[in-house]
Amino acid sequence: MWGRRRTAALGTAALLLACAIPTSGRPGSDVVTAASTTAPRAYVVTNAGRLQVLDTTDGTVVGGANTGARGTDVAVDRDRGRVYVVNGWSGGITAVDPEAGRVVGRIDAGAPLAHAVLRPDGRRLYVSGSGNVAVIDPATFRMVAAVEVGGQPLGLATSPDGHHLYVANAQDGTLRVLDTAAASQEASVEVGGLPQRVAVSPDGTAVYVSSLHLPDRTGTVSLVDPRTARVVWSTAVGEGAGSVAVTPDGRHVYVALDRSVAVVDTATRATRSLPFAARAVAVPPGDRRVFLATGETTTVLDGADDEVLATFQLGGLDDDGRGSEAAAIAFEAP
């Protein structure tokens, strides 16, 4: 069961230093990780816009940079050695060289932004905000198009082949489907409520959308069949609706709620609740671990049984002297 820690909790003494603190409190460095893990690094952006690159085996901060403005999302470009941080409130997109620890480029969109996703081939970066999806060429780090989707576009996800982009539109209750080759809208699917985030199963056969329903803040997850552009089912998951992640085998969907994390069995729709207040959830490609953005820490679960594998303390302080709080987590593409 969740709640019993099986590994060391790890803390950082400063932004670029980390030390291991076993649960027993005795000095040591043993860290148990899940079998068949493939993501060596986690890229965490804080609400203040600090990027921290964590070694996922022991929580050591191995790189990062301060983007100087509030962070709302992050995407990793392995081929170019770049990380893109969305500074949502200021309307900026910041390119970071995590190895050098410095900002190498900025785009001012001139309007508030929300989330980002990199196309699987690495040739396009998509950023949502203010009724549009910005299309950026990572090679030149320039905006090359803006696709109007109306309303309030929030969460983004691409199909595994990169041919389609899925956009959660909070204002009109839809999931918009874009053709990435034509940079145009292909379909609009009514999912209801205020759609927040979206995730695609690794095999591309299922699209999951989290939605918030007012006035009671009931959260739902809907399964959309991308072949028919129709909702197959929708299920209530608790209070709130936020970040969504699918396990590599496609059997479970994790959803960040207001004060907990819901885990949905995609075959039976049975839902269980985990006692973590997480702003974001993320599952590395091909990795059975589940990463939660839990305030000033990143909590790592074993997706096989939801046991806590590790808790990584984020390093450094924000400008107001408080600890950094994780806003989003991303990983390199396989």
TrEMBL record:
Coiled coil stretches, renumbered: none
Q: What is this protein called?
A: YncE family protein
PANTHER family named among the record's database cross-references:
DIHYDRO-HEME D1 DEHYDROGENASE, PROTEIN NIRF
Residues of the signal peptide: 1-25
**Which part of the chain is the Pyrrolo-quinoline quinone repeat domain?**
91-237
What is the protein's species of origin? Saccharothrix syringae
Keyword terms = Signal
List the Pfam families hit by this protein, alphabetically. Answer: PQQ_2
Q: What NCBIfam families does this protein's entry cite?
A: beta_rpt_yvtn
